[in-house]
Structure formats: structure tokens, C-alpha cells
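Note to self: keep these together.
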Amino acid sequence: MALPQAKLDATEARLAPLRLPDGAAWARAAREDALSRLRAMGLPGPRDEYWRFTRPDDLNRPDAPPAALHPGDDKPLFSEIDRLKIVFRDGVFDAEASDDLSLEGIEIERLATATATDIHWARDLYGTLEQRGQTPVARPFAALNTAFATDGVVIRATGKVAKPVHLCYLHEETDSDAILHFVVKVEEGADLTLLENGPAAARFNKCLEVEVADGAAFHHVRAQGRDHERRAVTHIFARLGEASTFKSFTLTANGVLTRNEAFIELTGDNATAHIAGAAVGDGTFHHDDTVFVTHDAVNCESRQVFKKVLKNGAVGTFQGKILVKPGAQKTDGYQISQSLLLDEDAQFLAKPELEIYADDVACSHGSTSGAIDEEALFYLRSRGVPASEAQDLLTLAFLAEAIDEIEDQDIAADILGRLEAWLIRHRKD
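Structure:
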């Protein structure tokens, strides 16, 4: 079916200033395939089913809307953790600020180096998981990323990696427009933790493709915050082997527009996938989590836990689906999305879904939206806790289920402290 002219024009306008990067034949083929798919589906519009809660205008336009820089001097998240740091400044790798890209049990290369190599392990993954994630829901910005990303890294974990790999994003140009692509392969029995934080750019398009082999584990914690005027669309595509583990948590504070998409396939028996998020927004804040988990193996477990705290007109959306394919017996699927609205101006929009084609499963989903529990607030006030502090305590208790999904307790405690500080800054005494 031909695209409507308006969508076709918008897509071509977005593509006009972009050029496919150079690379080996396999990389060029993957990029051209992604570009072809993007042109066939077109950029999203307000009538697209999975974009009806989020306006993509700022992501569609050819140039990045300016975003003021955050003047704060907060200590960077993860700064006290022993980690291997990889820095990107407005979407460009900064070798001087980064650590040496060598560590026992892991191989790390820049994307440009990997895609210029004729024979490379990444050729079987680059764009492959992204393409699988285009069905049944189109993800145009992911295809755009595969086609045009010029920077990023490819990571291959061959054993238990001694310390986390930290992707650190710095935003220093008010009109920067970054497209980064990361490919991660966790080999059989290996274990890798990936950390991410920073505003990255005025407009940020990121794609993370992760293959977790049999018996392997991948842990992922990221924080999106600081610069409030930034726009971002991010994608996680993951494929899990037998008895493998995938866990991802995202903290989002601030941001005019953030859309986090995830497509996770459990293709090996006894695999586990947990994806969670905590978002806090005030004023011109729009945050969208769109998650699709596919069970295609026996005795697998998935959890989706998303909590949002909203005030002063902030908007949160959640679109989550659990698909259980025929033969995926003994599936245990859990999905919960909840919002805490701190005033009458905030808004939460949710679309939870289950699609099940197996008969021996335990799947549940739920979505709630409400205000602070007045009885709990009265209880704390009656014991001398000031109103603002009492509200913060109840808010943190509300977010706790999502934060509990973080495996590392030190990281979880640090994130809890960041949330508490954010609530204090945005408090109305």
C-alpha cells in the first residue's frame, strides 16, 4: 500500500540531510535494507496506533529543536562505581575522556571500526534484531537509526565481566542531533552489566541490540535526566537463549519528550526477562514506555513493572504487550503500569495487552492511576511528619516496586537517593 502523500513528504524531508555511512558490504546492505523498510513504513503520525498518545513532530522534523544545557553540578550517577567508562559527547565518541577499551572477558570496538571489517561477529546482529522487532509493530525511528548511525560501540562478552561497562552521554551543543547504535553479544555462560546515563544531545535516537546466549546474563541500568528540554527516542531489541537472564531498569527525570521502546523475545526454554522503569515529571514532560514481550519457548518468565509520578500537567503513557506464541507452555508473564498523579493537571494514558495462544500459562496485567493515599498521608502527619516530607515518603514507597528490579543494591540505593533529591527540588511546601 502506498504511503499517504503527507507521510511520504515528511519522511523524505527527514531523510534529505542524511547520508548512509561508508562500510563493508554487509554493513552497507544492512543499512540499505533499513532505509528501504523506513521508506515503506514512513515516519509515524498521530493516526498511527502506537503513536496516538505521543506526538512525534519534534522527532520527525529534519533539524533538532534547540535544548538548553543543564547548569547543575550534581555528582554524575555511577561515578563512584568501579567501571569501564565510554564517553560520547553530543553523539561522538570521546577517546580522551573514555577508559581504555580493554577488559578481561570482553571485546569492545567502535561501531565504525566493526562495520568497516569484512568479517566480523557483529554482521549477524547489526540490524537483525531491529528488523525482527518491526513485526507486528512498526518502529520507524529504529530503522532510521540502523540506516544512519555513525557512532556507537559493539560489545562481545565471553566470560563474567569483572566490572560494568558505562556508556556516559554528554550534551554540550544546544542543537546537537545524535544517532547512536550499540550491539551487544553475551556469549554462552557469560555475564555483563551495562550502565548508561546522561542527556546525550538536544535530540537523541539510540538503538541497543542485545543477544543473550544460553545460560548468559545481561543486566542493564540507565538514567535519563538533567537537561529538561531534550527529546529522545530509544530502542532495546533483545533475544534470549535457553536459561538466560535479561534485566533492564530505566530512571527518567525531566525531558520534554522521551519515548523508550523495547522488544524482547524469549526464544530459549527457561529464560527470564525483566524490564522496569521509574519516571518522575513536572510541567512540560511527556514520557512514553512502549514494550512488547514475546514468549516463544517453554517455562519462561517475564516481568514488566512501570511506575510514573506526574505533576503540573506532565503526561505519562504506557503501551505494553505480552504475546504468548503457540507451544510456549508454562509461561509466567506479569505486567503492571501505575501512575501517581500529584495534582489534577497531570495525565496518565495506558494500553496494556495480552495475546495468548497457549493454554498452560499464568499471565496477568494491570494498570492503575490515582492520587496520594489520604489515609496514609494523615497517618504520617499525625505523627509529626511535615506534609511535604510525608508526600515524598509515600511517593518513594510507590516507586519502590520498580526500583526493586535493580539487581545491584548499591545502584538501587543511589537511584533512590536521586529520586528523593528530585522530589525535594520540585516540592511545593
